[in-house]
Design goal:
By secondary structure, the chain is mostly beta strands. The chain is built from one helix and eleven strands. 13% of the residues lie in helices and 38% in strands. Strand 6 (81-87) and strand 7 (93-99) form a beta hairpin.
Length: 151
């Protein structure tokens, strides 16, 4: 076989693969909140700051992730869990799941040592309606797993 032909074939394969990865139709890995495909909101707690979530499509699932930080003025461990909700344009909660953060306890901050951070990730099989919002909040209730909310 001709080496020049193999080099051209290889270069063409690389170019086509790169174009497919960069095409706008491929949503995997793209933060849908930053691109405006979904609205995101995080509701802080009296002792914890919740980051706005990153929302990414992975096949049929949404991957929702972010961080929790202990507020400097709070004392005691930051223990609890999060509610992650899918909210439609009129404000109705369509889906809800409950997740933990890691590590499960955030010790109080020590002066000069920086903030303590925990991480959360939810993988959910939710379809996004138009103008949907993903809402993350610290829950003050007992653990309940994924639920569908009916209007």
């Amino acid at each position: 076989m001709n080496t020049k032909h193999l080099s051209i074939q290889f270069a063409t394969s690389v170019l086509v693969s790169g174009a497919m990865l960069l095409s706008p139709g491929c949503q995997s890995g793209q933060d849908m909140g930053r691109s405006g495909q979904v609205h995101v909101e995080a509701i802080d707690h009296k002792s914890l700051d919740v980051s706005k979530p990153s929302v990414r499509q992975d096949g049929a699932d949404l991957v929702i992730s972010g961080t929790i930080r202990k507020q400097p003025q709070s004392s005691g461990p930051g223990i609890g869990h999060l509610h992650v909700e899918l909210v439609n344009a009129s404000g109705a909660v369509l889906q809800r799941t409950t997740i933990d953060w890691t590590p499960p306890s955030l010790p109080p901050q020590r002066p000069g040592r920086g903030g303590r951070v925990a991480y959360y990730t939810a993988r959910v099989p939710w379809a996004l309606p138009q103008n949907a919002t993903i809402r993350v909040s610290v829950a003050g209730d007992s653990h309940t797993n994924t639920a569908s909310i009916r209007e």
